[in-house]
Amino acid sequence: MNRTLKIAIQGGPASFHETAAKQLFPAAPLSTIPCASFPELCQALESGLADYAVMAVQNSLAGPLLPNYRLMAEYGFSVTAERWLLLDQTLMALPGQNLEDIQQVWSHPIALLQCCDYLNQWAGVSTKETADTADTARLLKEEQITGVAAIASRKAAELYGLQVLHQNVANDVENYTRFVVLSRQRPQKVATKATLLLPYPVVKFSLENVLEKLDTCQLELTMLQPLPSTNPGQPQDWVLEMEGDEAGCITQLLAALQTVSPNHQVLGLYPKAEAPLPQDRLAGCLSDVLKAQPELV
Length: 297
Hints:
Layout: E1 5-10, H1 16-24, E2 30-35, H2 38-46, E3 52-59, E4 63-64, H3 66-75, E5 78-86, E6 90-93, E7 104-107, H4 109-114, H5 116-120, E8 126-129, H6 133-143, E9 148-152, H7 154-160, E10 163-166, E11 176-183, E12 193-198, H8 200-216, E13 220-226, E14 238-243, H9 249-257, E15 265-270, H10 286-292
Parallel strand pairs: 1-2, 1-3, 7-8, 7-9
Antiparallel strand pairs: 3-4, 3-11, 5-11, 6-9, 6-10, 12-14, 12-15, 13-14
């Protein structure tokens, strides 16, 4: 019998991270380790408490979760798999509550951002950031909080016996988040996608050479973003993601990069997942970055 895998996730039961973990490990018996924050998730993996971690890194409406790339670089973790998950952001409250009873909406800050169009149309209602969507639903139920609605998954409403006030409150019903599997080891496998960290001097002075090598290796650049700097005034490293169709293209590219970026850090080599939307419909896509910083190309 297969050993039960321990997977660290941000949030608890009925969270989107739990759903993603079950989809990323469909054939394995697993138990999830709920974590209150992404740093806590990384600590659980680093300590050996968890075998793997599942972490959100990109949302189609809110863009990349760049601090999470910084965390995986700092901890030296490796991305081994990815999956896009359709999020059903649902407005819920205690049974008997109506929309006119609601004075505040609570949820994770990224969920609130994904639903900002809906919330901005709701006059007189404020928002409050919480650590997790599903745990917010649990809190409303356990503490019997009235006058407050939560934004979480429909699964959370069902688990905690909350009343659905409004379904699909995200800015777009096609609201996807990309989740990755993090490991302490770097498994050897055929990769069709790579996540790299480029030092700032490479991005500033050699980006054209990097892009040329991607083109030569028939790879598509899907992300190029500056990471939050750990020290104010310090040049920012950049995260680069690329993918291709042919096995061996990533290996060829990494060898070619040694001449223009010998100090790059490989954050993951893994099979690419099919993106649910075209690149130009993903918030923070490459074209947006290059338009905002044309001096890079």
